[in-house]
Amino acid sequence: MNVLSRYLADFSALLFPHLCPACGEALMANEHVICTDCRYSLPFTNFHLQPDNVVARQFWGKLNIEAAYAMYFFSKGGKVQNLLHHLKYKNMPQIGQVLGAIAGEQLLKSGAFKQIDYIIPVPLHKRRLKERGYNQSACFGEGLAEKLNAEMLENNLIRIRHTDTQTHKSRFARFENMQEVFAVSNPGQLINKHILLVDDTVTTGSTLEACGIELLKIEGVKLSIATIAYAE
């Protein structure tokens, strides 16, 4: 029966091949979600080995953070953009989970990320969450949580106001757009905890900054940041 099932699966793959969302090539039988070539050839930043990396520097003087990290460099029309597009708009939450696991393996090599208590994703507004069906940042957080042996918290940091898209806004306009957007529903749960705040992409950092401001109001909180990609 197992042999028959394997033959049927192989035949189905010939007719309806599973494609790597990064490069568009057919996945081999032993490949999961992202092809082997892309897993190793995507543009890693290695920011986990650079405490003063460009993402961390974005928050200097704005947020008191322990560490900051983005896994990939983002380039327009590149494979990382393809991954993020499929993650956000093509109903492929599994991409986020796989990328979270890859990121988690990297962060285990950095002492700054080893003692994380909670992983908190940047929340979507209820309307956007209903449209998409899932929070892509939470999917990334799930993969990270498993590798870092931390707990995912999806419902403590909440988005209380819907905002316009950040695309094409200046840094100041993005910051203004994110004012009074987020709130913490249960601050007591986070007292004296080390929180890893996660998102899909960091550009100017205004969204993460707005979230971080709320989290750092809580007594004893330590804050670190991780994203899938960094876009200049």
TrEMBL record:
Every Double zinc ribbon domain range: 13-44
Cited SUPFAM superfamilies: PRTase-like
InterPro entries: ComF/GntX_DNA_util-trans (IPR051910), DZR_2 (IPR044005), PRTase-like (IPR029057), PRTase_dom (IPR000836)
Pfam families given in the database record: DZR_2, Pribosyltran
Stretches assigned to the Phosphoribosyltransferase domain: 141-228
Domain of life: Bacteria
Family the entry assigns: Belongs to the ComF/GntX family.
Protein name per the record: ComF family protein
